[in-house]
Write a structure and sequence with these properties.
By secondary structure, the protein is an all-alpha fold. The protein is built from one helix and no strands. 0% of the residues are buried.
Length: 39
Amino acid sequence: MLISLAHSVIVDLFLYGCCVIILFNEGDNYLEVKKKKYY
């Protein structure tokens, strides 16, 4: 029980981390595009 709970938490954190990394990358790309557009 405890092992499966820990495993699901690890998987959740891993997926959450991937989402955060993807969002940061998309945000950086978006800012770069805005800079190129306005400057």
